[in-house]
Predict the structure.
Amino acid sequence: MFVKDVMKKNPVTVSADASVLEAKKIMQKNEVNKLPVLDKNGALSGIITKNDLLKASPSDATTLDVFEMGYLLSKLTVEKIMVKKVKMVGENETVEEAARLMNDYDIGCLPVMRDKLLVGIVTESDLFKAFIAMFGTRHAGVRATFTMKDEPGVLSRFAESLAAKNGNIVSLVTADVEDAGLRKVTLRVTGISMDDFKNLFDSSFGELEDIRNV
């Protein structure tokens, strides 16, 4: 699955010379918390979030009255408080790489580019939806977690045994474990009962950790 499959296309944007108040109104009107910032030529120059706007607002302890605060915020431009060093991602990048970037840099969204053109934005919630789909979460069936030897052919033999029992793999995800010779496998299947799954799973395939009807 690629970023272009899950991103929000034609994202709402704000100009760099817009005021903080204007940016706040745009967010409220469109019910978004993040806005890519475009310069006068339409190129991406930064990103501004709801948290950035909150930080720019006077604290509750200020002695300014509401009119003075409004005046100051109307003069403060987006360019002054936006994040300028923006992590971006290409539309043909994988969703897992987008998730890695967000995690590594502790950010909640990524502008999506086609060469130098902004074509979308992908957020944490977009990736959550993608992973729900990738795990086949909305499919009823049997979900099993097990460790399997990290060797060529082991998974193939297991899949063949599963197919012989009319089991159909909806999703399959593997992950690292402490033992470098093993992989943890999370599998969701349909067309087979939990008892039949248990019966075909012998020690040659690995160690079954959890199995449940979902």
User: Anything to note?
Assistant: The two ends are 24 Å apart (CA to CA).
